[in-house]
Amino acid sequence: MDTTAIAKPHDRLAELLADDMGAVNALIRDRMASEHAPRIPEVTAHLVEAGGKRLRPMLTLAAARMCGYRGADHVKLAATVEFIHTATLLHDDVVDESAQRRGRPTANLLWDNQSSVLVGDYLFARSFQLMVETGSLRVLDILSNAAATIAEGEVLQLSAASDLRTDEAVYLQVVRGKTAALFSAATQVGGVISGAPEPHVQALFDYGDALGIAFQIADDLLDYQGDATATGKNVGDDFRERKLTLPLIKAVARADADERAFWVRTIEKGRQQEGDLDHALKLLHRHGALADTRADAMAWADRARAALSALPDHPIRNLLDDLADYVVARLA
């Protein structure tokens, strides 16, 4: 794959959608204001303005533009998607006791857990207000279902994260919840608000679902072989936090008795010591877990690109195709 040809398609998408994204950012700033609780915009601005790619709201704008939408509700829906995403990040950092997000201190570290949870709740409430303003019951149905699925995925991850019985099917369920649900909702509502034909709406859902899964698998793989300066995470954070992501699940499934005892001690019991991460990496390589995880990410990216074939020819469709490649090109 020629990664130079597809370098940073999200930047090209941002350039193409610059006017719409400007309107989304203005709406976000307007709706995260609070007359009575100034901490709300303080906490929200710290995360919203941290330099994230705004990939999810861009997917909503891209889907609407590709389907020929001419109204203004796609801006409200894109802001809704970003608010849901930001709320989940605030809550996640409290649950994970994270100290860093996108290379910066997390809100719960700069303020406190209570502020992060309550501001997250405020953003969820704001997102529902924005959904309702579109007047589309189907949009409300899709995005409220996505919000419930995200929460469900996070709770499932709590019980599955350090349980060596967690298999690839459960992992996929967690990923569909915590990541893919918002990707697929973001693309699907762009089609719905445009009045696109049902096969196109389904194709947009399928694209978002597969893209989200590829994105998360790639993220989990980069935890074991990524560059900390590029990812904002230290290599092995998931291991230290005892998270059973796909590379570990594959290695555990192929472990002999001694290797399984190592995984029980380090992941299930959390009794980690010096040198354990290096040993874990050796086991991941020995069983081909990293290479197979990469192959899975590539396969999901291919499924995302295949879904686009049902959509009409459009410059944005080509960019979305490149985006699916780019998500996994990081793994090259």
Automatic annotation (TrEMBL):
PANTHER family: ALL TRANS-POLYPRENYL-DIPHOSPHATE SYNTHASE PDSS1, GERANYLGERANYL PYROPHOSPHATE SYNTHASE. It catalyses: 5 isopentenyl diphosphate + (2E,6E)-farnesyl diphosphate = all-trans-octaprenyl diphosphate + 5 diphosphate. GO terms for molecular function: all-trans-octaprenyl-diphosphate synthase activity; metal ion binding. Gene3D superfamilies: Farnesyl Diphosphate Synthase. Its cofactor is Mg(2+). This is Octaprenyl diphosphate synthase. InterPro entries: Isoprenoid_synthase_dom_sf (IPR008949), Polyprenyl_synt (IPR000092), Polyprenyl_synt_CS (IPR033749). Belongs to the FPP/GGPP synthase family. The lineage of its organism: Bacteria, Pseudomonadati, Pseudomonadota, Alphaproteobacteria, Rhodobacterales. Supplies octaprenyl diphosphate, the precursor for the side chain of the isoprenoid quinones ubiquinone and menaquinone. It comes from the Bacteria. The keyword Transferase applies. GO terms for biological process: isoprenoid biosynthetic process. It comes from Pukyongiella litopenaei. Its EC number is 2.5.1.90. Pfam families: polyprenyl_synt. The keyword Glycoprotein does not apply. Keywords: Magnesium, Metal-binding, Transferase.
